[in-house]
Structure prediction request, 297 residues.
Amino acid sequence: MNPQLSPKKALLLVNRQSRHGQEHLSEALDQLKQLGVTLLEELTEDPLKLPEIIRHYQHQVDLVIIGGGDGTLNAAIEGLVDTQLPLGILPLGTANDLARTLEIPVDLLKACEVIAKGRSHKIDLGLVNDKYFFNVASCGLSVQITQSLTKEAKSRWGVLAYLATALKVIWHARPFRAEIRMNGESIQIKTIQIAIGNGRHYGGGMTVFHDAKIDDQMLDFYSLEMRRWWHILSMLPALWQGRHTDLPGVRTLHGTEFEIYTRKPRSINTDGEITTSTPAKFSLIPQGISVLVPRSP
Prediction:
């Protein structure tokens, strides 16, 4: 698709169960039509069917518009990779970390402007085992937060639900042992959290690294290895800003491939959804898909 032209026809996939799935959506769809976008809407309540739907319509549309949160976007990645259709984002979720990373406005009408008039930009993808991710894949504390975070809490409290749940989970956090393999070297660690980021934001606005980019062809690794679980409380502001890299008890690495091994399988969270487990191999897919982003930062 020529990034200088407004899209002609778009496959619209909306998670109407997302936090803002019903609010102002009809107004946003009217806005897209006024901007010259013809919408072909397909409904499904099963996110796992999104790749199949995208493949089915790949020759009938110019792009795919997904309305939902990071979990809905993550569920669609395989279809976007297979078809190489550009992605337009209507941020309807609680965290909207991918939209935040790409500087796509949370305001739906402004997001519509980006879809219709923005530029097509290639971004990298992360891959863990056979699961793609945009933002971050992690195990340990974040998995416990995901398991404890209810839809009701997200709907009622929004991003604050992540913080409240994190504070509750931290009280029960216990370290685990893991082996990290990178560039032929093995590192033995005892940690409460391992995160490998492809994008910049995750977990409702937390930052992987303050200078991380989703198009820098690099994965950013960190591990929280403090001696006492409560030490993480004093680190929360730095973790939020991505400026934790020089703090005691934080290990950081950068590369394009990592392997993680644990004594027992440990669940792995990708973009807020638990999708796979250790042993895990992480790799980078450079310029994996195209996304419509604002013309000016």
Notes: Residues 160-170 form the longest helix (11 residues). The longest strand covers residues 280-293. Confidence is low (pLDDT under 50) at residues 1-7. The chain is about 30% helix and 35% strand.
